[in-house]
Amino acid sequence: MGQNGEMKQHDAIVIGGGLVGAAIAYGLAREGLDTALIDEGDVAFRASRGNFGLVWVQSKGVGAPHYQRWTRLSAAEWPKLAAELGQRTGVAVGLEQPGGVQLCLGDEEFAGRQAMMEQMRTEAGNFGFEYRMLSHDELAETLPGLGPEVTGGSWTPYDGHVNSLYLLHALHKGFVERGGTYLPNRTVDYAAAQPHDFRLGSGADEIAAPRIVLAAGLGNAALAPLFGLSAPVRPQRGQILVTERSERIWPIPLGSLRQTLEGSIMLGSSEEEVGFDTGQRPEVMQAIAARAVRTFPWLAELQIVRAWSALRVMPPDGKPIYDESEKFPGAFTANCHSGVTLAGAHANAFAPMVAAGALDPMMLPFSARRFDIPQAAE
Amino acid sequence: MSLFRKVSEPAAAKAGVIVTVEGRDVPVPEGASAAAAVLLAGSDAIRETGVSGAPRAPYCMMGVCFDCLAEIDGIPNRQSCMVTVAPGMVIRRQHGKRTVDTAVAAE
């Protein structure tokens, strides 16, 4: 029991105050649910504070049309979410969705990209997938100083970018403004699960709700089994370099390169399997900078003023995991490495499903049960 | 009028270095930073921010706050508190975001 011996009853509990948990908690509160949000705070690994800030559609869901559709749905919800957050919280998250281009160096990359984009279009079926492969010369018209090694790039109209720190701030502010109960700087000390009856002890508080959403990022791996769920996520490190602020050069985000509204140019991206190590490696930073300078030679003139690493929340196949517990109905998980891109879907689609008590059938392919297939004999 | 004053004259009055701050010659002690030269020149600001255009002067003097950004010897956005003065150095106001010459050729 809590200090005063009382269990505080809510309609829903969300564990995890990063972008995924905050977007879902915000959505639940907006649906009218009395929601409690448990947040470990900035001592957590918190990919939300280290990400690149893209709302990126064009490469998501190759071979997995359900993931492509989910990402597209989120991109379509984004303008509503950004406008609503601005209106209700006064925080401008700086959303721009002018479309985006992924640039290719050399003929092999271009051919590979073209094949991937065509596969995406085929898999989209009736849903459609608009893209164009643009040549070096076509791109050079809008991208000044494009390097000679750039053979071209893929364009889709769906991509964009946003200030992800303002987004996290706005979701938290919006959640509280909608009457949410924010419980910061704590973890789950113990949990008891029964169907539609979840009780948690956290610090001096004991809380209960008929619904619970696990959105604790890398922490979900340990939490999920307590609720009859599985979330086999691992950390995957990414590193980012940031330049001094300069006048606006690019009208659109370029995948691993983007210029913020404030003028900084962000350079990514990298993928390292190093466990929970949040350090940086010069070799990786050099590789990021070298590719950026091959793409735009003038970038070499800019000073790097900041660099950091963060840990992606990575499922085994790189695709999100959403689930509801069969053993304990009312318990849900949300796991992904695209907390910015998918914020629109989490706030405006996933949260309403949780509020209604069950995931839509469109979410079935995202279940962690896809990893349960027994090893097949060769 | 600058709000800043030297705490004391340097002992043995080291030979001064002459630098130019916004077109005005300023004698500064050897080993001082370009940001110190800005303060000694009595400038009330050495940059306008890239986002709001607000005027800013050197603040932390130890490389953290980026409020002392200035154009030094033609190079924009330099942290003037991290640059040691040299004879003839030209320190100019950083007007908002820097410009970029995108015509730089690939090496």
Major beta sheet summary of chain B: 7 strands, mixed
Biggest interface, chains and residues, is: A-B, 21 and 15 residues
Give me the count of strands of chain B: 7
State Rg of chain A. Answer: 21 Å
Describe this structure in words.
The complex is a heterodimer of chains A (378) and B (107). By secondary structure, chain A is α/β, with parallel strands linked by helices. Chain A has helices spanning 19-30, 65-89, 106-124, 136-140, 164-177, 220-223, 282-295, 343-356, and strands at 8-9, 12-15, 35-39, 54-55, 100-105, 132-135, 150-156, 160-161, 181-184, 190-194, 197-202, 205-209, 212-214, 234-243, 257-259, 265-267, 304-314, 321-324, 331-335. Chain A folds into 3 domains: 8-55 and 165-232 and 317-371, 3-Layer(bba) Sandwich (FAD/NAD(P)-binding domain), CATH 3.50.50; 100-156, no CATH class; 234-314, D-Amino Acid Oxidase, Chain A, domain 2 (2-Layer Sandwich). Chain A contains 8 helices and 19 strands. In chain A, helix 1 (19-30) links the parallel strand 2 and strand 3. In chain A, helix 1 (19-30) runs parallel beside helix 5 (164-177), helix 1 (19-30) packs across helix 8 and helix 2 (65-89) crosses helix 5 (164-177). The longest helix of chain A has 25 residues, at 65-89. The radius of gyration of chain A is 21 Å and the shape is globular. The model of chain A has no long low-confidence stretch (mean pLDDT 95). With 107 residues, chain B is mainly beta. Chain B has a single domain, classed as Ubiquitin-like (UB roll) (Roll). Chain B has one helix at 34-40; strands at residues 16-21, 24-29, 47-48, 55-56, 69-72, 75-79, 90-95. The A-B interface holds A 144-145, 147-149, 244-247, 249, 262-263, 294, 296-298, 300-303, 305 and B 50-51, 66, 77, 97-107.
